[in-house]
Amino acid sequence: MGFGIPAQHGIQFSIAGGSTVNVRSAVLASLHVLGWPIRQETGQTIVASATLSVMSWGEKITIQFLPNGSISVCSACAFPLQLVDWGKKRQNVEKLLETIKVQMSSAQ
């Protein structure tokens, strides 16, 4: 359970053997599979949003592509004053990473 202003959870993740293009494609496909619309996309960052739920006002999912070939994923509350997330942000990050792994394995 995350606690802070806003409540958030983040992790850095390395995908072995994945080129930047393949990883980016897997991230985009994963966001589509999860139904999380992309709100902003630049060369190094993708910002998407997860939907409103009983436990949250929605989440902002930020994926950064790091120079060492890994990615940083952070899920933060869309509502800036939400203090507690009841584990929802961690679930978002884990769900995205699992979906990326599936996308990477099916691309090979």
CATH topology: TATA-Binding Protein
Taken as a percent bin, the fraction of beta residues is: 25-35%
Structural class: alpha+beta
CATH superfamily: Kinase associated domain 1, KA1
CATH class category label:
Alpha Beta
Helix tally equals 2
* Succession of helices and strands: EHEEEEH
Structural domain tally: 1
| Outline type | globular
Q: State the end-to-end distance.
A: 35 Å
Layout of secondary structure:
Blueprint: E1 8-14, H1 20-34, E2 38-41, E3 45-50, E4 59-65, E5 70-77, H2 88-107
Antiparallel strand pairs: 1-5, 2-3, 3-4, 4-5
Helix pairs in contact: 1-2
Features:
single chain, alpha+beta, TATA-Binding Protein, five-stranded antiparallel sheet, 2 helices, 30% strand
What does this structure look like?
- With 108 residues, this protein is α+β, with helices and mostly antiparallel strands.
- The chain has one domain: TATA-Binding Protein (2-Layer Sandwich).
- The protein contains 2 helices and 5 strands; from the N terminus they run βαββββα.
- The protein has helices spanning 20-34, 88-107, and strands at residues 8-14, 38-41, 45-50, 59-65, 70-77.
- The protein has a 5-stranded antiparallel sheet with strand order 1-5-4-3-2, with helices on one face.
- Helix 1 (20-34) crosses helix 2.
- It is globular.
- The N and C termini lie far apart (35 Å).
Describe this structure in a few short sentences.
The protein is an alpha+beta fold and 108 residues long. Helix content is 32%, strand content 30%.
